[in-house]
Amino acid sequence: MPVVVFSSLGHLYIHLCMAFYFVIILALEVDWRMPYYELLELWTLGALMIGAAALPAGMLGDRIGASTMMVAFFLGMGACSILAGFADSSFTLLLALTGIGVFASIYHPVGIPWLVRNAGANKGKALGFNGIFGSLGTAIAGVTAGALIDLISWRAAFIVPGLLCTGTGVALLWYVGRGSFDDEIVPTKEVEQPSREHRVRVFVVLLITMFFASLIYNSTQTALPKTFELRHDGLAGDGAFGIGMLIATVYVAAGVMQFLGGHLADRHPLKYVYLGALVLQVPLLWLAASQGGLPLVVVAMFMVMANVGALPAENMLLAAYTPARRHGLVFGLKFVLAFGVAPLAIQLVAFVVERTGEFYWLFVSLSLCALLALSAAVWLPRPRTAKFEGRISETPTQGLQ
How confident is the model at residue 235, as a pLDDT? Predict the structure, then answer.
């Protein structure tokens, strides 16, 4: 039970700390009198480190133990967030944001497998619960940052989450000191594997679809606060808190959809669940390009729901078509790709804003990305029965978020 709690809190904190800057930046524009795109670019290196350091973080976790690495995750990310709150120049803020990215890279390749190894027979439920916390972290990032900015200052929006993260790390360190966790990896039984041809095809196809899906997710997460600020038509009021509430609405709904996506992936052929989620994103992203007010919020809600709803099927496909002994490597590569594309997304958003001052062409471009991902996904092998796919996926990496 403590592993479920700490892993879920870690999932909440990482997504909170990956998203709160996009609301804080709205206050920094005024306080520091810097343009939006220049402030946005300060997060580029931190976002890059989340992906670039994921594979070595996972390998280090295998060597020194997941619980020890999770202590470093909580303490390091919390401390860097606190330091960001005391930044007095763009350079010091850049260093603090980069530190957040370095320590944030630990969570997915270490924290999720840590949860799976300790979840017993209820892996699916534990992972579904954990996935909700990830979306909840993104959802409350805007609300938390907006409220703290309006009530205190943008500095508090960094410092308060940092203190909570650091406190959780101290609590985990106490549990580790008591010897409450066993980091031993227990080998799993070998199960029937698909052909090499199908494994290679699925891996290549998923490399393409994961790239575009990650670009869409990270671009959307980056752009939505500013898009809502420009187009909310009075829904958000005058403060940052209102923008945060709109963001929270979108990502709370996404968290529910991720749980439902896992339910569908357990009961239907994975290819069709995956294709369905990609099909929905094409028109929704196109609609987001021109909507405002309540229609924009509704469209944004459904497009993010479709994006994250594909994750359970995506992860189960990876697990089903990968030899069990290679799961750590393959999922490590996935996290490198998923988070490594974030700097590209940030640069894409900054480029569009700098050139046009709006987000119309951003969402049109993302709609095209969804279409390209869909075109690749149709080449996934003909689905075997959901029961057969599920049996192959019954490994420590099933359903990784």
Answer: 72
Domain map of the chain by residue range?
2-180+195-392
65: left (phi over 0), alpha (psi -120 to 50) or beta: left
User: Mean of the pLDDT values across residues 382-391?
Assistant: 50
Contact 244, 142 (CB under 8 A): yes
* First-to-final CA distance of the chain: 19
Q: For residue 306, is pLDDT > 60? A: yes
Helix orientation angle between 2-19 and 21-31, rounded to the nearest 10 degrees: 30
Q: What percent of the chain has pLDDT over 90?
A: 29
- Residue listed under structure tokens 């879920």: 8
Residue 51 pLDDT greater than 50, yes or no: yes
With vertex at residue 214, the alpha carbon angle to CA 210 and CA 216, rounded to the nearest 5 degrees, is: 120
Q: Token pair of 299, please? A: 């469209």
pLDDT band at 92 (very low <50, low <70, confident <90, very high): very high
Fold classification of 2-180+195-392 is: Growth Hormone; Chain: A; (1.20.1250)
Q: What mean pLDDT is reported for the chain?
A: 82
Kindly report each contact of residues 4-9 with a partner whose C-beta sits within 8 Å and lies 24 or more positions away, as own/partner: 4/115, 4/118, 4/119, 4/126, 4/129, 4/130, 6/70, 6/168, 6/171, 6/172, 6/175, 7/70, 7/111, 7/112, 7/114, 7/115, 7/130, 8/115, 8/129, 8/130, 8/133, 9/133, 9/168
